[in-house]
Design goal:
By secondary structure, the chain is of the alpha/beta class. Helix content is 35%, strand content 17%. Strand 2, helix 2 and strand 3 form a beta-alpha-beta unit.
């Protein structure tokens, strides 16, 4: 794993955006795996600014999103399709017919998941997958479990994840309790993985995920097994990791 230490959230966002922009420049028709949530907002903002300056061209890029709430239509302002349109797609020159988000309105969960996996395969796989990191170690909506799920699947969201997402809804009762999410195998098949984290509240789980055992109880720990992972995190998020790693090396 390559570790890039950032000063703060803004620095983390710039460094992450640099990695994504390099991918787009090196392979204009690349497939980007994208994430939602508050952490990547700064990264997307940098990409938009560089596009507007003429430094980036997304016209040949395809994208695949990690997940979508089950039961939310694409035009719902809390859906992940809406999030991506608002925070990236509508502000750059990406062909939105080549931006793929799981179909939250597909009532047949097996079909919704199978369709998303088929899209990834038809695109030839993901060149660079962007990930955030949940406080319980989840990546996408792959929650702590007894085993690593393989392909895209329907998940029952944990109470902690529902509570974390409730800040985006009028009340916790409106937060969907299920989501379609890309599986661990799909994520691990990406050629490159970029994981970003910011803030002291991520410090404990970063140390656990990248210095602890590989276990489905900490889904992000599987990233230790990937050949090309870059972690970009700020000083606060890396505090426990750096301390523990130093202690391990001293012993």
């Amino acid at each position: 794993m390559q570790l890039i230490q950032a000063k703060d959230y803004d620095d983390m966002s710039r460094k992450a955006a640099n990695i994504i922009s390099a991918q787009v420049i090196m392979k204009p028709n690349c497939v980007l795996g994208l994430a939602t949530g508050s952490t990547p907002l700064g990264t997307y903002s940098n990409l938009i600014n560089w596009y507007k300056k003429g430094d980036l061209d997304f016209s040949q890029v395809s994208s695949v999103n990690l997940d979508e709430y089950r039961g939310l239509p694409a035009d719902n302002d809390q859906s992940y399709r809406y999030f991506m349109k608002t925070n990236l797609f509508d502000q750059v020159n990406i062909d939105q017919s080549r931006t793929y988000v799981p179909n939250g309105m597909e009532p047949d969960s097996d079909k919704a998941c199978r369709d998303h996996d088929n899209i990834i395969n038809e695109l030839g796989g993901i060149d660079l997958q962007l990930l955030g990191l949940g406080l319980n170690g989840h990546i996408g909506f792959n929650e702590p479990a007894d085993e690593f799920p393989k392909g895209t699947h329907c998940v029952d969201l944990t109470q902690s994840t529902i509570e974390a997402n409730s800040r985006f809804f009028a009340s916790i009762d409106e937060v969907p309790t299920q989501a379609y999410t890309m599986g661990i195998q799909s994520i691990m098949l990406a050629k490159k993985i970029l994981i970003i984290a910011s803030g002291a509240n991520k410090a404990e789980i970063i140390a656990k995920a990248f210095l602890g055992p590989v276990t489905p109880e900490v889904p992000a720990s599987i990233l230790q097994m990937h050949p090309d992972v870059t972690l970009v995190a700020d000083e606060a998020a890396l505090s426990a990791y750096l301390k523990q790693k130093s202690e391990m090396e001293a012993n």
